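Task: fold both queries, return C-alpha cells.
Query 1:
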Amino acid sequence: MDYEASTLLELKKLCKQRGIKISGSKDDVVIRLMEYDEMAAGGRPQAPVFQQAGSPAPMHMQGFQQIMIPQQNSMYQTLGTFVILYSLVRIGWSMLWTLNNEQMIGWLLAPVGFFIGIGFLAGGALIHQEYKNGILLTLAVLVISGFLSIAFHAETMGDMNPVTLVWGDSAMFMTSILCSFTCFAIVGLPLLLGDGNMKQGWPPSLQRIFDRTGKANEKRQVVCGSCNEKLKIPSEYSGNIQCPSCKSTMKV
C-alpha cells in the first residue's frame, strides 16, 4: 500500500485498526505502519505492550500492539476527595443536632442537613471516578445548600442550625454568600478547564437501576378487539386486561 499517497487521517485510522500508536507526524505514522507490515510479513508475534496514556513508547517497541491504560486525572481525584471530606463534616454536624431537641428548629432541620451531606458524598464519589454527573449533582446540592444557608442564617451562635456553618451580623451574612459562590466556582472549574474526557452517564450499577425504573414507567398501546378503544398498559406486562369502555377481557 502506498502510505505516502494517503492523508494523515487515513493513516491514523489504519494505525487504530492495527492497534498501534496513532500520534505523531505523517512521517512517524508511515514509519510505524511500515514497521508493522515488516513484522507481519516476517511472522513475528505482536506482543501487547501495556503503557500509560501520554507516555511515549520506546523505539524498540514502536509498531507492536499497544494496550493503552487511561491515566487518571489528579484534578478530579483531588476535587472529589475535598467534596467527600466536606460531606462528612456536613453529615456529622447534622447528626449532632439529633442529640438535642431543645432548639426545635435545629432538631427539625437535622434530616435536611443530613441529606445535603449525603448529596455531597454521592457527588464527591462520582467526581473522584471522573463522572460529569458528579459535577452537576454537586453543583445542584450547592445551590440548595446555599439557599437554605441564606434562609436560615444565624445572627448569634445560639441561633445556629444544621443547614448553616457560620453565624454573625450582616457582614458574616455576605461572607456566607461569597463562600457559597466560591465553592460553586471551584466545583464547576473542571467543566471549564478539564481535559474533556469526563465519563458520561452513571456508574454501571446505578445505570442498571435507572434503566429498570425507566422501563417500569414505560407504556405501550394496544387496541381493544371489541370496541377498538386504544388502551395504554405497562410495556413489560403480559396477561389479561379489561377494557374500561366495553368491559370485555382480552389477553396481551
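Query 1 returned. Query 2:
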Amino acid sequence: MCSAGSSASRGWYVVLPLMALMTVIAGLAALDRERRTYAGQRIDSIVSIWASAWLVGAFGLFAVIRIHPRYEPQYAIPILGMILGNTLTGVSLGIERMTEELTSGRGAVEMSLALRDTLESGAADRVSGGAAGMIPTLNQMAVVGLVSLPGMMTGQVLAGQSPLLAVRYQIVIMFLIVAASALGVVGAVVLTLPAAVLAGSSIHGVETGGTGREKRSA
C-alpha cells in the first residue's frame, strides 16, 4: 500500500510534463481558426489558458476532490483535459470577437481614444469578447442533466457507479469548467486589448496575405 502510494507520488515528473503538453496544445488550438492575428497572440492564448485551467484544476483536485497523491494521473489528467477543452473554446471565441470588433470599428475606437485619452475607456465599450466567449459554456450549463448528459456522468453510470455519485462529480466538474472558462476569457481579453493597440493609442493595421489570413502590418 505504502509502496504503491510512493510510486504514484514519484510519477509527478511524468504527469506534469504531460499536463503541460496538453495545455500548450490547447493554447495553440485556440488560435487555429482566427482570421486576425497580432504579434504575441499565441503567448497570450497559452498564458490565459494555462493560468486559468491550472488554477481552477488545482483548486478542484486539492480542495474539493482531495485526491492523494496529488498528482494521481487517474484524476488529474482527465479533469484537466475537460477543463482545457472548454476553456480553449471560450478563449478562442473571446479573442476572435475582440479582434473583429477592434478592427471593424477601428475608426470609431481611434476617435474615442483621441477624445478620452485612455485605452480602457476608448475601446472597452466596443468589446464584447468576454460575453461571446462564455456563451457555449453557459448554454451547456443551462441544459446539463435535462437535455444533454455529459460524458463523465454517463460513463460513471454505465460503469456501474451510483447515479447520485455521478451527478455529484458532474456538478463539481461543471462549476470548475465555468470558473476556468470565465478566468480564461477575461485573461485573454485583458492580454489582447493592449496588444492589439499601438503605443500611440491606435489600432494595429491588418493586411490580407495571399492565403486570405489577415496579419498585422509591420
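Both queries returned. Flag for query 2: The chain is about 70% helix and 5% strand.
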